[in-house]
Write a structure and sequence with these properties.
about 270 residues, six-stranded parallel β-sheet
Amino acid sequence: MSTITKGNALWLTWETQPRNRSMARELGVPLYVFDFHGSRLKRQLRAIAATLRLLWTARPAVVFAPNPSLILTYLLLACRVVFRYRYVCDAHYGGVVDVTGSRFVQRLLNFANRHADLVIVTNDGHAERVRECGGTTFVCPDPLPQIPQSTARPAAMNGTEKSVLFICSYDADEPFNEVFAAARLLADRGFRLFASGRYARAGVTAGLHPHVELLGYVDRATYDAYLHNVDIILDLTTWQDCLVCGAYEAMAAGKPCVLSRTKALSELFTHGT
């Protein structure tokens, strides 16, 4: 949380995510993260209240915020009428294309992108989609995250000679079942696969994948230690215009990375992948 200064720009988010930190850092604007615990309804109500208090106190000239969340996006569009700031939407994949295929949600996304003062997107494909619905775009891939140098090898890696870190959120675009099946082949070649992320949310059971070390959610320091100590980083998506965070983290850690051969990923990540 940063000190509130009236009349300046600020970056506001309802989730803890690397791009928010790196974009706010590179822009030189304070970052406000309202990422609360509890049920989804409780989290969102608390985040709405915190957002309104911040806008009232800071009276910003410019507000940067990511979409998703669509609720945050519409709240900031509505509050712009009262507080008269410029609203810059940082649209991730789900802020441009509805992942469920809902026409209603897609219309909501198009309306929001058309009425934001500026929409930041990560690639030309999404820029074209936003322009088609009447929005004004600026293309900006993620700045490289700052990953502290770590020499501490995670205890789970003891005895491991060759290793792969599979970065996964267990979302619909991530082919984790195929990766887990491939882990058996990797094990025959002396590799051990470590998989980050909350696997239980996808109904994954650890005992069914003996060749995979399911880490679950780990704290940032432990995650950074894996980034620095594994041999290869793996991050996959089936979405064509999605730039995965793990690719940026692999670059920042100086590690070779295996990515999906999509147009967006192939055009941006041309070395070490």
